[in-house]
Amino acid sequence: MMPVVEVSNISKSFGNLRVLKDISFDVRPGEVHALLGENGAGKSTLIKIISGVLQPDGGEIKVEGDVVRFASPRDARHTGIATVYQELLLFPELTVAENVYLGHAPRTKWRTLDWQAMRAGARALLDSLDSHDLDVDTKVGLLSVANRQRVEIAKALSQDARLVIMDEPTAALADADAKRLLSVVRRLRERGVGIVYVSHRMPEIFALADRVTVLRDGAFIGTKPIGEVTEASLVSMMVGRSIDQLFPKVATAVGETILEMKNVSYRNVVNNISLKLRAGEIVGIAGLIGSGRTETALTIFGITPATGGEILIDGKPVTIDSPATARSHGIAYVPEDRGLQGLIKPQTIRENVSLAILDRLAKLLVVDRRREGALARESIARFGIRARGAEQLVRQLSGGNQQKVVLAKWIATEPRVLIMDEPTRGIDVGAKAEIHALMSKLAGQGLAVLMISSELPEVLGMSDRVLVMRGGAIVAEFDRAEATPDAVGAAMTAAGKHAVAELAS
Amino acid sequence: MTLRSFLRHETILLILLVIALIILAQQSDKFFTTDNLLNQGRLMAEVGLLALPMTFVIVTGGIDLSVGSIFGLSAILLGVFWHGLGIPLPVAMVLAVLVGGVAGLGNGLIMTRFNVPPLIATLATLALYRGLAEGISQARSVRGYPEWFFVLGQGEVLGLPTQLWFLFGLAIAAAAVLGLTTFGRTTYAIGANEVAARFSGLNVARTKLIIYATSGLIAGLAAVIFVSRVSTTRSDMGTGLELDVITAVVLGGTSIFGGKGTIIGTILGLVLMQVMKSGLALAGVKGDGTIVVIGVVLIAAILLGNLLSRNGDG
Fold first, then answer.
1. Which among A341, A351, A413 is the nearest to B199, CB-wise?
2. Under 8 Å CB-to-CB from B18, ≥6 apart: which residues?
3. The whole model's pTM is what?
């Protein structure tokens, strides 16, 4: 059978960073083809190329045998490729029917909008997706995320989509809604539509997919029929590399407990977290997006102060109600989103590095420029920041060097607890290794490091202990020796707690 | 940061100012007289005072539309406290200034407690404070202030109009606070990236409260000076004043998006605006024409500034 879409030898680079190398991939009609890989493996880039958002540097795309070049998402839509994005692109103030037919509405012979045909068409499409309960006259803004997704799928069908790309469609859904979505996907498959399905949830992939393709670091690892793989073999395909060589974790003497959390909660996002962080130790938190890892960090750091439980520093209970109090207790947080939360990009390295200790650099409220300049130059040397000098603007630096500036800013506060959230996201391999070496060195100097990462190899390679979070709670804990990719990966995705208990024992 | 780019914008302003002065001096021989210059200084003092805290406000990425209304409210209350309630005039003056501060603090609280954007919060209080002023005054004006009170608005100290001493003193203080202190740094950081400022442990809410409260406080002070200058109190005082203030600040190179701006720039913008106003008036241009010219110069200054800073940063 001729594939709906076939890509061969696709490559893509952003600047010097190669994100896709020679990827070949095809989807047949009536097939659910799962696309797997860690964050940063290149899944999103591949999807964006197939849907016309990005143009490949090399390779070709064929739709039903014909070579095509997409200059825009519009071109891709015209050839029958529809994408259901994580962030839904519907108009909340328009009705379901209007959204479904936006841009290609049926017309009457007077060239006015044919409302009846539109409503009837939308009704028929939704019925074909087993969504009889959805009213075509409801404003989309009033619908739940799950229902909006169905509207978006109906919209794809209304354009005669032959390939539907679904990027983590169930990530934001509760279990029941996710199950319904799966049946919708099956309906699509029965109609002969090809489906590219991206998800981190293993059970879904086994329930749904016909074939699986795994990407890692932008390279094609393999395409297999679902019958030939197991959860374990998929995880090892995804993680793959020999971790110990990449992450030079130095064994250090673990000291006293510095930070302790006892049943700490924040609303219903962080649920009864208890953990201990000791001096010289790197504790990694693994988990999927939305599992509550960053939320926990934000609670420790006082951005979203705890609504329940107790945080202790050196065994004494403390109240952390703002980043300033967290800082005064020796807690530093290198945030997830460098550009938004970590840096003041239009300002210089000097101004960024001093930001968290301005008070200490000031005499009678006047900032001491000499000491500030000295701090900046010292930071540049100590962290190996490649820049023209302390007065260079931060936005002109590369991602890795920007991250070093954030790290320098927080190390200047002389913290005892360092929380690093996605410390190497979007950073090239060389700078990544430098950040890892710095982290290891800081732990060696007696800092307690809490590291959150979506890259399993990073968590496993850097951590003395690994905690796994799901649904805002810690669901498993592994020592460095026990923390295998399979065990941690399974705990991250497992549907029930039994699986975790088995793996942890 | 980008001290160079600030200086560049200020250089443009200085050149524009010199050009304006040359043209105006040729147009009218009355322009370059000590009397006229001092009088112009007197006229720009109130807008100038308000422009100082407004520079802080706009550097944080905010806006304060209510300063004209706070100005009117403080002016009215000065008359009411003294004439209506019989409070001694010096005490009434202090109270009028404090009322301004409380009104500004109200703005700050609305923004920081309820997360209302500055534009909306101060648009609401623009109406609210003006309405209060009109309700309190009942369209009556207060006159008959004692002679010593006019020293503030009509007198001179060491040959210079009294209010210019206030303006110079506060301008120097504001420039020092914005340029040298941790508070100034925090102000820039909030404007350039409020989230990162918060994540760096800076006290964003407190800084904003102080800035908006100061804006109100200075509006109160300017109102007292204004009442002294015009010898009377009415409820429509200061209507539309906020637009002159914002124009001076933006003309001075402060970015409406926040994170950029200086007090020196604001002062230059203020002087340029006043010079154009008075010069055009002397040259016989009517009020409407003046506004048009100011608008054109504002757009030209901003475009030139953008052009230069883009080239500079690469």
1. A341
2. none
3. 0.75
- Residues shown for chain A: 505
Determine the CATH number of domain A252-330+415-505: 3.40.50.300
Interface of B with A in 237-276 (CB under 8 A): 259-260
Rounding to the nearest 10 degrees, give the CA dihedral for residues B298, B300, B303, B304. Answer: -120
pLDDT level of residue B5 (50, 70, 90 thresholds): low
**Nearest to A164, CA basis, from A194, A140, A137:** A194
With CA atoms as reference, report the closest residue to A140 among A105, A96, A172.
A96
Q: Is the pLDDT of residue A184 over 90?
A: no
Q: What would the pLDDT profile of A88-125 be if each residue is shown by its tens digit?
A: 678 989 999 999 998 888 888 888 989 999 999 999 98
Inter-chain touch A366–B201, beta carbons under 8 Å: no
A269 and A480 in contact (C-beta within 8 Å)? no
Supply B136's token pair. Answer: 């309190």
CA R_g for chain A: 25
Mutation site, B195, B199, B206, interface A, largest A CB count within 10 A: B199
CATH H-level, domain A5-244: superfamily: P-loop containing nucleotide triphosphate hydrolases (3.40.50.300)
Q: Can you spell out the DSSP letters for A449-464?
A: EEEE-S-HHHHHHH-S
Range(s) of the domain holding residue B268: 3-21+30-308
- Does B199 contact chain A (CB < 8 Å)? yes
Q: How many domains does chain B have?
A: 1
Task: Return the CATH number at B273.
Answer: 1.10.3470
Which regions of chain A carry the CATH code 3.40.50.300?
5-244, 252-330+415-505
Yes or no, beta carbons of A365 and B313 under 8 Å apart: no
Q: Do B192 and A341 touch (CB under 8 A)?
A: no
> CB of B185 within 8 Å of any CB in chain A?
yes
Residue type present at position A22: D
Give the whole-angstrom CA distance, residue B192 versus residue B189: 5
